[in-house]
Amino acid sequence: MPADDRFPDDDALIARLPAGFRIGAATSAYQIEGAAAEDGRTASIWDTFSRVPGAVDNGDTGDTACDHYHRMPQDVALMADLGLDTYRFSVAWPRVQPGGRGPANPAGLAFYDRLVDELLGRGITPWLTLYHWDLPQELQDAGGWTARDTAHRFADYAALVHDRLGDRVAHWTTLNEPFCSAVLGHVEGVHAPGGRSLADGVAAVHHLHLAHGLAARRLRADARRPLDLAVTHLLGTSAPATDAPADREAARRADAFGFRFYLDPILRGRYPDDLIADLAAQGIEIPVREGDLAAISTPIDTLGVNYYRSMRSSGTDENGADVDARGLPVTRGLPHGGLPVTGLGWEVMPHDLTELLLRIARDYPGTPMVITESGAAYDDVPDADGYVDDRERTAYLSAHLAAVARAREAGADVRGYLAWSLLDNFEWAYGYAQRFGLVRVDYATQRRTPKRSARWLRDTAHRVRGRA
Ligand code: FCB
To answer: In angstroms, what is the span from residue 244 Cα to ligand 1's centroid?
Structure first.
């Protein structure tokens, strides 16, 4: 991709999107709200983890973040100025149900009540995610996602939020990226709660799926108004690094563990046989009980797809060995090489998004999709007024929206594109140094300044909507 401009055919593809195609932006509670100890909110696993020395770059925490909790009406006004038709946000569990059990905290729920009214008042569709990684610390102390009971606690919490907001919010996403909660949080140790055990990670995936399924049933049971029910997964492709059998086998394992582990139980009601065998070879069993998969495969209306990048899979390590110290086959993710990268070093591969969406359409037919996150961190340089001429991010968004349009034209049922993120924010283990926002946040003053990419998205949404 040219560094400073967009692909020439992007505009033509985007221009053919239907007027009803959803264009908006996303955020999450811990990354923007701040007010970590206000109005009864208790600690989440990210409040705890961000205080572990070395866990987050620069020792950053979400204590203040973008101070959105206090600036919400202005932020919603900004969204309206930017012409967003949809805003995806998450509810902080420890704000509305401190400690993760028991009755709702009225002050916490009232915040989201006001947010929803503010959005609706400005003609913006609220898209609510129930869980974007901020598990109440008390539930972590009781085992967190490795404990089956957490799934039941989540269903109670989901019902509590839905009771209050279900009359006005139609779009409900249960979970954001179970892969990150389970694998980054329990296997790789880089996200809260910082565990390093494959068995824990596998148990966490299953309990997250169960949490989704139990909550889906509870929300479906409340028929006050039609519900658009979704779950969001972080997805990519995992092509073999070469045609060698070891690499092809590694790609199969990566696809089983990183892709089908998430979509098969939800959309097919079972775990993949090859995944079960791969895990059994490591002495690990998915803790499934009778009836779980029926709950987990409760029909959804929309699959949320978060896409950032993909890796190639290699079946050998740096020294060419195809088994590790425990005698297990090597599965190693490698960059594709020769591609531009974002500020985080993530390869920019919009063509792969088209491929991914077509694969989902082919392998899981009949599932409408929405891109619930897509975006890039770059090393923004503001001018004296705080304006960022972020041509690279603009090009990134344009190329990815065009990639979605290309997939649609080839038959994938994709109904919207929500950019990550509305605001620069707390980027988890990278802290505030990595900026994904359409809008710059000066953290010292909390001043918001829309970047070039925000203006581009506004103009694009306007053009798409302008046609009948
Ligand atoms: C996704 C997360 C989101 C943000 C982006 C960059 O995995 O859902 O909160 O951190 O990555």
So the answer is: 33
Q: State the Rg of the chain over Cα.
A: 21
CA angle, residues 165, 166, 169, in degrees to nearest 5: 80
- Give distance in angstroms: CA of 292 to centre of ligand 1: 28
DSSP 403-453: HHHHHHHTT--EEEEEEE-SB----GGGTTSS---SEEEETTTTEEEE-HH
Name every protein residue with a CB atom under 6 angstroms from any ligand 1 atom: 28, 31, 176-177, 180, 234, 306, 373, 420, 427-428, 436
The amino acid that residue 152 corresponds to is H
373 belongs to the catalytic site: yes
CATH number of 10-464: 3.20.20.80
Six token digits for residue 176: 């954001």
Q: Is the dihedral of CA 406, 407, 412, 416 positive or negative?
A: negative
* pTM beyond cutoff 0.90: yes
| C-alpha 83 – ligand 1 centre gap (Å) | 23
Nearest protein Cα to ligand 1, atom 9: 28
Pocket test for ligand 1, best of 46, 173, 177 (most atoms within 8 A of CB): 177
Nearest alpha-carbon partner for 440 in 427, 431, 430, 450 = 450
Q: Where are the domains of the chain?
A: 10-464
Measured in angstroms, how far is the CA atom of residue 370 from the centroid of ligand 1?
16
Query: pLDDT per position in the chain (468 positions), as tens?
Result: 444 455 668 999 999 999 999 999 999 999 999 999 999 999 999 999 999 999 999 999 999 999 999 999 999 999 999 999 999 999 999 999 999 999 999 999 999 999 999 999 999 999 999 999 999 999 999 999 999 999 999 999 999 999 999 999 999 999 999 999 999 999 999 999 999 999 999 999 999 999 999 999 999 998 788 899 999 999 999 999 999 999 999 999 999 999 999 999 999 999 999 999 999 999 999 999 999 999 999 999 999 999 999 999 999 999 999 999 999 999 999 999 999 999 999 999 999 999 999 999 999 999 999 999 999 999 999 999 999 999 999 999 999 999 999 999 999 999 999 999 999 999 999 999 999 999 999 999 999 999 999 999 999 999 999 864
Candidate from 31, 46, 427 with most ligand 1 atoms within 8 A of CB, to mutate: 427
Answer yes or no: 318 catalytic.
no
Active-site residue, selected from the candidate residues 33, 118, 355, 373: 373
Residue with CA at minimum distance from ligand 1 atom 10: 427
With contact defined as beta carbons under 8 Å apart, do 268 and 297 qualify?
Answer: yes
